[in-house]
What we know:
153 residues; 5 strands; 61% helix; elongated
Amino acid sequence: MLLFASKTLFAQFGTERIEMKQHWSGYSFMVDDKKIKLQEALKMMAAVDSIAYAKMLQSRKKKYWAASLGGLGAIMMAYPLGEMLAGKKAKWPIGLAGAVLAGISIPINSKARMQANDALELYNNKVTWRHHPATQVYCLVLQPTAVGLKISL
């Protein structure tokens, strides 16, 4: 129980490295191979580096703007396609405007990802402590002349 409490305490004060994993739907944050939310990453950053915290806030704003513009653009592109499939006359300027909005969201999302990466780099450079759990390996050794137990620390 004490080990869990101390690990929680260290994570709370931002003494562990945060890593960003990129995937098709965006990116996620990891601490010791455990996925954390953006809010948790922001709390960890606020305690250690105010500049990294501010950059991550800017990144979050850009990410939300990019998602909003991209979603709106997708809806505007789908509307004329739905009209066309329903047999009505499609309003293609709405679809074109949607494509423009979706296109605008791509560089905004790219900038948000770069800012998040920069913020994590600043934060991780200030973090000095890294939790390395002790690993013990037990192996049963079978040889022609002996049987034994090998312990690696």
